[in-house]
Amino acid sequence: VKPTPAPTLPPTPSPPPTIPPAWAVCKGAKADVVFLIDGSWSIGEESFRKVVHFVSGMVSAFDMVGPTGMQVSFVQYSDEAKTEFRLNAYRDKGIAMSAINQIHYRGGNTKTGMALKHTYEKAFSMENGMRRNVPKVVVAITDGRSQDEVKKSAANLQHA
Question: Domain count of the chain?
Answer without folding.
Answer: 1
